[in-house]
Structure formats: structure tokens, C-alpha cells
């Protein structure tokens, strides 16, 4: 399926620019571009994203934003931080970037990819507690560590996150190994190689 999609996407891009003479277009270009961008972001196809964005820049700001939102939706969902950054760079208004990132923070957390969370929380003023709860439930250290470095997380939520951070887990493992080394009964349970 992935190979089929790779061969179809360039055709889709050229189809939106140069449709066949007998093609009856029922929607607008923005809708077509939005659907295509969502697919190519889901597959992480950076060259095709860049090519499509060249075509999108000539559209109105509203149409462009609609297309970028669909691309961000897929990029956040599938943890494609490179593509999300490319898409966010297309948005000139900081308030608009914040709005987009607010909308897709949950998808970024659920992607279990620390880099996309880091990118998205960098544009968010406040991380809601219910999203911190999701991160804690999923226990992905890269996501938790990204949230710990974010300025939009409350001190109470940071305290809750710290016990699941990579640093805390590493320290816990070290303490347990040291306890095993000191306890003769436990030390004998460790297989000798």
C-alpha cells in the first residue's frame, strides 16, 4: 500500500494543476489540496509537501489556512515533526500559529513522539491538565520530557510528570540495581553468565 501511495502522490499533485480536459471538478482547489496534503503528511513525504506548498502559496489566506490545518492534523497525528515545522513556517501570524498548535496538541501527545510535542508546545501558552493526564497514562518518556520543558505546564502538573520522566526512571533503576547488589538474597537470584 505504501509503495502504491508513493507512486500516486506525484500524479495527484500534477492532476490538481493540470487536470484532464474532460474532468468535471466538483470542489475547489483548496479542498483538493487539503486532502492531498493530509495524505502526503501522513506518509511523511517532505519533498511532496514542499512541492504542494509552492502551489498553495498563490491561494487566499483563508484557503491556505484550511489546507495547512489538514496537513498539521496528519503531521501531529503521525508524529511528523519535520513536516509540522514546515507547515507552521507557512503561517506568518503568531496568534494563528498558537491557535493551530492548541488544536493539535492532543494529537501530538497521542503520537507518542517527543519531537512533535516539543514543537507544538513551543507555540502553546497553556497545556491543559487533561492533556497532561493523557501523557501520564501513555507513559512515553520522550513526550513527558518535552512537556516538562514546556513553559505552558503548571507547576502542579510538572510535579506529576516528573515521576515518569526519563531522569526519574533512570534513577529508579540505578537505585534498584544498587539495592540488589547489597542484598545477598536478591544477588543470588541474578543468573551468572
Describe the structure.
The chain contains twelve helices and no strands. The chain is elongated. The model is unreliable at 1-5 and 15-26 (pLDDT under 50). Helix content is 72%, strand content 0%. The chain has helices at residues 2-17, 29-42, 46-56, 61-77, 81-89, 94-110, 114-121, 129-138, 141-148, 155-162, 166-182, 184-187. It is an all-alpha fold and 193 residues long.
The secondary structure category is mainly alpha
Tell me the distance between the termini. 45 Å
Largest β sheet strand count, sense and barrel closure: none
Instruction: List SSEs in N-to-C order.
Output: HHHHHHHHHHHH
Classify the oligomer.
single chain
The number of E-state strands comes to: 0
* Strand coverage percent: under 5%
The percent range for helix content is over 70%
State the shape.
elongated
**Continuous helix count:** 12
Give the radius of gyration: 22 Å
Mean pLDDT: 83
- Residue windows where pLDDT falls under 50 for at least 5 positions: 1-5, 15-26
